[in-house]
Amino acid sequence: MIASVLGTMIRFGTSGWRGIVGEEFTFRNVRLVLEGTITVLRRHRESGEVLVSYDTRLLSEKFAREAIDLITHHGLPAVISERDLPSPCLASAMRERGACLGVMFTASHNPPEYNGLKLYTRHGTLASRGLTDEIEAEVARLAEQPETFYVPRRELASASPLTEGYLASLERDLDWEAIRRSHIVVAVDPLWGTAREFLDRLLLAHGVPTHVLHTTKDPYFGGYSPECTPNNLGGLREKVRATRATLGLATDGDGDRFGVVDETCRVLAPNLSLALLVEYLFTRRKVRGGVGRTIATTRLVDRAARAAGCDVVETPVGFHHFGELFIGGRIAVATEESAGLGVASHLPERDGIYAALLVAEMVAVEGRTVRELLQRMFARYGPLFSRRIQLPLRERIRVAMEKILARTYRTFAGSAVLHDRREDGLLLELEDDAWVLIRPAGTEPKLRLYAESPSANRLRVLLRECRRLVREAEEGVSNVRD
Q1: 338 and 238, same structural domain?
Q2: How far is CA 30 from CA 12, 89, 103, 192, in A?
Q3: Is residue 292 one of the residues assigned to a domain?
Q4: Same domain for 366 and 400?
Q5: Which residues are CB-contacts of 481 (< 8 A; sequence separation ≥ 6)?
Q6: Is the full-model pTM beyond 0.85?
Q7: For range 218-229, the mean pLDDT
Q8: Are 261 and 240 in contact (CB under 8 A)?
Q9: Bridge partners of 314?
Q10: Is residue 424 a part of any domain in this protein?
Q11: Which end of the chain offers a freer environment for a tag, N or C, measured as fewer CB atoms within 10 Å?
């Protein structure tokens, strides 16, 4: 469920806690979350410095400085970044410095009116559900008490770039020589977010012809959500066309997700980008180990992984589920349908900048265009077409979702249901190598409908049936105020 505040209830979703600034996401609630987090850390005997950073959103830096004041009041050394940073950069700094907690103020790809925070562990992974559940309980207890007075201790506060180790890892973990030799031309769009002066400057520093747009800091992201959708990447598509670039690369608001525009100016579906990269990692990079995949991610990932003799570990939606799997060595790669990729040899957390550059490396090393790589992948593993659509998550739809989950499904859209799972919404796996998933988003008030099928026509039928199911359940709801 979306991270929200109901009265004094604060909930962490699939990627931290988020809310509309001034409504759910307030300075008072930020202080509550940090108080609760520090209490839980001490309960677990965790100590050391705390790293704090922020994205380009309105008030993000002010929230970060408020966090520094509260953290130092509790006697913990706190380090704030000298500028807004991509989330994977902070995750990398956590591992590099051995800090006990990382706090990132960001709402990632959400609309400009949102803000939020992510919590990182000393391993560079997002805080686990077990830890955030404990923090939520502590916050609920603190919310019933008068807010305590706190005094910042300036001697415990400092500033740092927090970028050295991350930049060094991008130099180390990519085949820059192959990228240079290929003579590819790249267009880059950081969508006014934190990846500006990271993704573009790395390419330029290595002599890669690079055309850049939207590199100024804009807290309103040009008036739309900083998400790598086809509509939002219209400018990048035009830049690819105008410059005859080999490919276009984009990142979302905090740089942990990525987007790809091919040489024909088409935006590649995230699932296809992920499948291509998984195949590349196992066939060319010779990566070995398990592959993590959320239930909403394409099964092309499974086909590529199993062709290489690697296991697939399926999780509910949310990249935080992969942290312990990375740390325990069960997976070497993690994939999330919303363009999230993590590679253990680089960082046990999703990194949109690394993923985008890895696409450039893949095109360079393979000597093929993105479209040619897709055609080869479909020839090897067979085609799979997937899509996600979103509906506003009104109260009436919440009640309808309860009705949908209460039903038994033996067939769906004319196909037998092989598996019916409800750990994260409703997942129906069908006999014709297709599946559908209906679930509330974990980062915003949306109901998401997913489907995948070997046929594009069948995909449309599945999504239409999902819509019909939701509509009929909603029409049967009464006495609910939206």
Answers
A1: yes
A2: 12, 22, 11, 25
A3: yes
A4: no
A5: 395
A6: yes
A7: 94
A8: yes
A9: 293
A10: yes
A11: C
Q: How far apart are CA 423 and CA 425, in angstroms?
A: 6
- Verify that 320 and 341 share a domain, yes or no: yes
Token pair for 210: 């690079």
- Side-chain-side CA neighbours of 4 within 13 Å: the count stands at 9
Number of domains in the chain: 3
Domain match, 86 and 217 both = no
Whole-angstrom distance, CA of residue 129 vs CA of residue 135:
10
Could you read off the pLDDT of 259-317 as tens digits, one per residue? 999 999 999 999 999 999 999 999 999 999 999 999 999 999 999 999 999 999 999 99
d(CA 437, CA 468) in angstroms, rounded, equals 14
Question: Do 281 and 418 fall within a single domain?
Answer: no
Q: What is the pLDDT of residue 478?
A: 60
* Angle formed at CA 304 by CA 300 and CA 307, multiple of 5 degrees: 135
Cβ 43 vs Cβ 28: under 8 Å = no
Mark residue 223 as left, alpha or beta (left: phi above 0; alpha: psi -120 to 50; beta: remaining).
left
Q: What's the pLDDT tens digit per position in 104-152?
A: 999 999 999 999 999 999 999 999 999 999 999 999 999 999 888 899 9
Q: 261: domain CATH number?
A: 3.40.120.10
Q: Is residue 64 located within the same domain as residue 17?
A: yes
What helix, strand, coil percent values describe the chain, rounded to 5? 40, 25, 40
**Integer Cα distance of 283 and 299 in angstroms:** 17
Q: Residue 347 has what DSSP assignment?
A: B
DSSP string covering 270-301: HHHHHHHHHHHHHHTS---SEEEEETTS-THH
Q: Determine, yes or no, domain membership for 133.
A: yes
Query: Do 190 and 63 share a domain, yes or no?
Result: no
DSSP state of 21: B
For residue 6, the model assigns a pLDDT of 38
Proportion of the chain above pLDDT 90, given as a percent = 91
- The DSSP call for residue 320 is G
d(CA 180, CA 228): 26
| pLDDT tens digits, one per residue of 43-54 | 999 999 999 999
Residue 98: domain span: 5-164
Show which of 360, 381, 402 is a domain's final residue. Answer: 381
Closest CA to 127 of 44, 228, 227, 6: 44
Average of pLDDT values for 363-380?
97
> Does position 167 have pLDDT exceeding 70, yes or no?
yes
Q: Please state, in angstroms and rounded to a whole number, the distance separating the CA atoms of residues 99 and 69.
A: 17
- Angle, CA of 42, 47 and 51, to the nearest 5°: 110
- Whether 218 maps to a domain, the answer reads yes
